[in-house]
Each structure stands twice: as C-alpha cells, then as structure tokens.
Amino acid sequence: MRMVDIKKQSNKYIIETVILVVLVNLLWTFAKQIWPLDVFAPMMASMIFVLVVEITSALVWRWVVQKHHEMLPSFFTGVSGFRFLGALLLITIWFLVVGREQIMTFIMVFFAYYLVTLIHHSIFFSRVSHRV
Prior knowledge:
Elements: H1 3-34, H2 40-67, H3 72-98, H4 100-129
Helix pairs in contact: 1-2, 1-4, 2-3, 2-4, 3-4
C-alpha cells in the first residue's frame, strides 16, 4: 500500500469511528426518552475513552505500517490489550467514584460504545491489513 493510501485509510478509520460514536450517542439519547436513566455522564466518559483509544490506534497504525511494518501483529495485540486494560481501569474508577448503585448504568452505556468500536476495529483492520 502506498504512503498516500495509508494516510487515507487512517483518516477513513477516524471518520468512521466518529460517525459510529455519534450514532451510539443518538441511540442512548433515544433510549433516555424511554427509560428513566441518567446516562449523560456515562455517555461522555465512554465517548471520550473510545475516541482517544481509536484515534490513537489509527495514528499509531499509520506509523507502524510506514516505519515498522514487521511489527503489525504486535500492534494489533497491543491495541487489544491496551483497550481492554483501559476499559477495566475506567470501569474501576467509575465504580470507586459513583458507587454500586450507578455502576450498572455505566457498564450498559460503556459496553455499547466498546462493542461497536471493537467490531469496527476488527472489520476495518481485517480488510485493510491484507492489502498492506
């Protein structure tokens, strides 16, 4: 894959991630109308977490493909581990701050963002990595 294509694919991944986050935000906004849940703070924390992890992984992927192509398998393993440990850390911090009563709401909201971006990551990079 040419250098321009790599940058284009990286930017495409970031744009798709932002679109997916907006769609999940809309989903929770509509869900809030049906169920009396206070999901604003969990939405913001989940959205920030997902955007930071996914944009960072897109930029690091671009760098790895351009400079250290032989390390791509390690990159994918590292991103998965980093995302999982970051999620556990965020859930733990949230639990310590808000307590037991509100943790299930946070986990429901966070899981929606996490699952959507995990599926997106898997599909996107499985399509792109065979071309690199």
